[in-house]
Predict the 3D structure of the following.
Amino acid sequence: MAGADPTSPATRPAQDALLASLRAGDPAVTEAWVRSQLPRMRAVANRLLRSESAADDAVQEAFMRAFRALPDFRGEAALETWLHRIVVNAALGRLRKVGRAGEVELDQAGPEYTDDGQFLPGEGRAWGAVEGLLQREETRECVRRMIDGLPETSRTVLILRDIEELSTAEAAEVLGVSTTVVKTRLHRARLALKRAIENQLTVEPQP
Amino acid sequence: MNCKEFVDFMRAYCDGELPVDLKSAFEEKMEACSLCRCFLDGYIKAGNLAREACTGESKPVPEALIQAILSAKSEVAASES
């Protein structure tokens, strides 16, 4: 995930000063920090939970966990990255409670092959330029719905790895699965999303 | 390498995890097979679309949520002092 390197000489003093103020309970700094972090953290929780009210509960829980854990925060990661992990954990915890995290795996999202492993006709469809597609909010919403439509195990891995940009090891840790499972689920999710986009969006073919 | 093996190795290739020998074989296949080239292109572009569709979608945060967090924070601070 993107985040300033807390060990770099340029960002370390700023983070140290922020941490000291937060630990001291400075009301103005605390409020400014909460306001600055909330939009992104709420979007992350909402993406995972697909419910604004559940996301708000998860974010509130995550901030409380963060405030309690601040004295023990050692600064190995950027503060924003640390908070992001707490939010992801809170949201995944809620997903597990409602039992959605254990839904079926994607097992057949890939292309079809001949007996000797070559693509069947119709696979390997060419994609033209897609950069312009997302200028329309309608298309962006359509892609988000396709992601939401993936089975839970695939959807969460895709969000954590490709959208929230956690590493494979980080995703495996927060999901409580092996890195091999993360890699397998991610590949299937990417294939399923590719197929869904090809089926539902007009992807301009190349000559 | 056939098309199925190419697809099986795509994730590792995109994530920079293929060992040197497999990476060479993968890239040779990509060079030789236009279907594989197109398939990989779509795989990468689908990921890019997903990332871009979910970027910058944050909505205005309700003031009530901000105040609820700050209020709960004050209670935590009071209980710890």
